[in-house]
Design a protein that fits this description.
Blueprint: H1 2-13, H2 17-33, H3 37-50, E1 74-77, H4 90-104, H5 106-111, E2 119-123, H6 130-141, E3 145-148, H7 150-153, H8 160-172, E4 178-181, H9 198-212, E5 219-224, H10 232-235, E6 240-243, H11 249-260, H12 271-280, H13 286-302, H14 310-321, H15 328-337, H16 342-349, H17 353-363
Parallel strand pairs: 2-5, 2-6, 3-4, 4-5
Antiparallel strand pairs: 1-3
Helix pairs in contact: 1-2, 2-3, 8-9, 11-12, 11-13, 13-14, 15-17, 16-17
InterPro entries: 26S_Proteasome_ATPase, AAA+_ATPase, ATPase_AAA_core, P-loop_NTPase
Pfam families: AAA
Protein name: SpoVK/Ycf46/Vps4 family AAA+-type ATPase
Length: about 375
């Protein structure tokens, strides 16, 4: 009983609502077994009155764990609406909607002789929205999201990794859910790689068997930044395969507008400024674009400034490409080259007008 109380406190401190709910139910069950049904009923009533997002997850309370490290191999999250902005081109959006609809209408597909396995493979550079897609699908289907913790899944004990994989798939088959395997290439590598051991081949074989036997009531989403490492047999296990790449210009524009809106700024109404940022954010992931803009916004707030300026964002882009900051002349040249006036450079950097003018002349 004390173990459940400790877990509830841990969940509360880490703001993990589902952990609090799961172990509160376990505590209530223990109280009933010990004869204190009055307190148990109060606990259940509090949970039910506040947990409107999800039906009971009793079957997902006891998570699988690695026998050697004693660490849980999955996290279970409520299907809540993600705060991450999902902005893709129309083709990707349509494919995601099609995947969701295929799950809703899987019985109709089966009755028409169309095989379906509810498996989605996402690949592409880091930060392009793979995890956000998994959360979005979880929310749209109102299914809990089971995220595999790769660091605890892979065991140093020979044979244990394959057993851990089986435990994870068995766990995710107890109740309809979205099973999310990130960094998928780590356990799905090409089996003819001469540098890998026979153990890895057994892990891949075990993975393939578990995918084939996975519950049709659940969804499997796998994600990787290194699709070229995946075994050929792995690809055939996925009905839907999507590449999430760096956003095109029109999508970058929408992303910038999304992240800058909500704070007073001198950017969104200036076509020249917004176009410059759109070009400078080429080959940068949505996650990194968000990080750069948020850092600029944070500095505004910390310095008691109400307006986000073009200089603020441009300076953060410069820092991304020049982490050591570099010479003042180089910074001045970069800012001036991308449309910041000498006056604004002086006001924002604290450099003298004379120094700024000399730096601009040298760059020219």
């Amino acid at each position: 009983m004390f173990a459940e109380i400790i877990k509830i406190i841990e969940g509360g401190m880490s703001k993990d609502q589902q952990k609090v709910i799961n172990y509160s139910r376990a505590l209530a069950q223990n109280l009933i077994e010990s004869g204190d049904s009055k307190v148990a009923n109060k606990i259940v009533k509090i949970i039910d009155s506040n947990n409107t997002n999800l039906a009971s997850l009793d079957s997902l309370i006891t998570k699988p764990f690695d026998r050697e490290s004693k660490l849980e191999t999955v996290d279970v999250l409520l299907p809540i609406e993600s705060t991450d902005s999902l902005i893709f081109d129309v083709r990707i959006e349509d494919e995601i909607k099609d995947f969701i609809m295929s799950y809703y209408k899987k019985d109709i597909l089966i009755s028409n002789g169309i095989e379906t396995n509810n498996n989605l493979l996402l690949y592409g550079p880091p930060g392009t929205g793979k995890t956000s897609v998994a959360k979005y699908i979880s929310f749209q289907l109102d299914l809990p999201l089971v995220i595999v913790k790769l660091d605890s899944l892979i065991s140093s004990m020979l044979g244990s990794t394959a057993k851990n994989i089986r435990k994870v798939f068995d766990f995710a088959s107890r109740k309809p859910c979205v099973l999310f395997l990130d960094e998928f290439d780590v356990i799905a590598k090409i089996r003819d790689d001469k540098h890998e051991t026979g153990e890895l081949k057994r892990v891949v074989n075990s993975l393939l068997q578990n995918i084939d036997q996975f519950s049709n009531e659940s969804i499997l989403i796998a994600a990787t930044n290194h699709h070229q490492l995946l075994d050929k047999a792995v690809w055939r296990r996925f009905d839907k395969i999507l590449m999430l790449d760096y956003p095109e210009k029109i999508i970058r524009l929408k992303i910038i507008q999304e992240f800058i809106s909500g704070i007073k700024n001198n950017i969104l109404e200036d076509k020249k400024k917004i176009n410059t940022l759109t070009l400078l954010f080429e080959a940068i992931s949505p996650a990194e674009i968000k990080s750069i803009i948020n850092t600029a916004k944070k500095k505004c707030v910390l310095n008691n400034r109400e307006e986000l300026t073009f200089y603020d964002v441009l300076y953060e882009i410069y820092l991304r490409n020049n982490p050591s900051i570099g010479e003042e002349e180089e910074l001045v040249g970069y800012l001036h080259e991308h449309g910041v006036s000498q006056k604004d450079i002086v006001e924002n950097t604290g450099l003298s007008m004379r120094k700024v003018r000399n730096s601009v002349k040298k760059e020219e």
